[in-house]
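This part of the workshop introduces the protein records we will be handling. As an example, a complete record with its sequence and its structure tokens follows.
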Amino acid sequence: MQHLLSQFRERIIAACADKTPLNFRGGGSKDWYGQVPQGEIFDTRDYRGIVAYEPTELVITARCGTPLSEIDAVLSAQHQMLAFEPPYFGASATIGGMFAAGLSGPRRQSVGALRDFVLGAVLMDRKGEALRFGGQVMKNVAGYDMPRLLSGSLGTLGLILEVSLKVLPKPFAEASVRLMMDEREAITQLNAWATKPLPISASAWHDGVLLVRLSGAHAAVQAACRVIADGGVLVDDAEGLWISLREQSNQFFMGDDQYSKPLWRLSVPPLTPPIKLKGEQLIEWGGAQRWLRSDADPAVIRAAAAQVGGHASLFRGGDKSVGVFHPLSPAIAKIHRRLKNTFDPSGVFNPGRMYAN
């Protein structure tokens, strides 16, 4: 792989010298995420392969171009998983793109986000140097914050070469329960359950139906079912249901009457009451994530999210000229610009993918 790194290094140095924008790209499964990609495509897929995997240590390290499906297959063989359930959004998804996007799936409610599982990363900077941050064990805290910063940076700080992640064992048992209740009742109930020792690993409310997934030891799941399933029904073969939610391929996200409308992602405190906005909503993560299909004024949507202490991103579709991500406060915007200018003073790494340079 050294010859590939040499090629990467030469291209990055030349691009910085000429100020030629580069679009770091793996499988392209998330090209639509963020602002419109700019620059020459810098394909990372050839730099692939699992560098190290220690099932007993619950750690895996892989190169950026490694297919996410390959990672999942290797982990599944050891009855382990990427616990934050990252969405693929396409069969071509790579671990580098997953890390750069920083997205988490339904299980984020119980285990945390992708950034909480990052142990280390290798970044090729503007000088073509491979900088190593963090390590492969949780106790190695040197440079630990930098990998978390890279998570979700959309390649704007440099070329992500490798990622080390903590993995977890798959649960021994899972069960999903369907309950009928309105939005306000669902939010209240989810937050009440959150105060109890229940193995809730995911939840989703839409159109009067609340779905709850329980994961853990057989006895714990059975006991929780007796608490939660009162008035509800167990869902058979629910795995596909949660995958469709993770991949946004269910009726809410893909329905003919909804697909033409912009999809907004609202991040708010879990106890936030129903947010009255034009359009249709789906609630995840115990109330903390609200998906909104709406053609309402972006300013109105963002104001409603900000009013309850949250923020709103234009996740998919719509007019990206309004800004995909929630506007930063002046202080945070200043930090953002200083970070970008420090790592990429020439402005060539995925320019404008998050905010204007």
Notes: Residues 137-144 have pLDDT under 50 and may be disordered. The domain at 2-169 is CATH 3.30.465.10 (Uridine Diphospho-n-acetylenolpyruvylglucosamine Reductase; domain 3). The longest strand covers residues 159-166. The chain has three domains: 2-169, 173-246, 251-318.
